[in-house]
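Appendix B. One record, verbatim.
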Amino acid sequence: MSETQTVMKMVMRYDPKLPSWHNIHNILEEARKIGKEGEVAHHLIGASLQFAFPDFEINNRSFNSETDNLGKPGDYFIGDTAFYVTIAPLITLFERYLQNLQNGYRVFLLVPERAVTGSRQNAELMVPGRIAVESIESFIGQNIEELSYFTRDKLKNGFRRLLEMYNDRVDAAETDKSMLIEIPRNL
């Protein structure tokens, strides 16, 4: 991209009084308004895993890449766990999860908070007790809190690092730069 070209970025308002969960939720809501929630969720989870596991290579691919075509279980894979990130967990996706379970992998399904209850119910119907279903907001929020030692000042730095990693990942993997996040001044 040329130096003179201006990119519109998503605006995130960081409120240090809010729980980390809520700040992540606000990012996803902003992304939802512009029709980019899936893409943003995908890259936020990638950045969160990279933040938590700096010595691991966390794959970075375009949101529109097909996981199946890459020969990898899940959107992200660490240890023996396949992580799937989706905003609309369709029943048909559970076939993929079941295949991973049959291959000896553990499965984490990460969805927006509004989809957790239904996704857990579906997981229990399809493969009782075998799939961890968590909200994207809780997964990332807890990660940041723990890595920041539950300290406000370190939490601000943690959020800044997460957003910088997110922007680096989006910039490297996506042609659509509109999902870059403008880092708030109070970080």
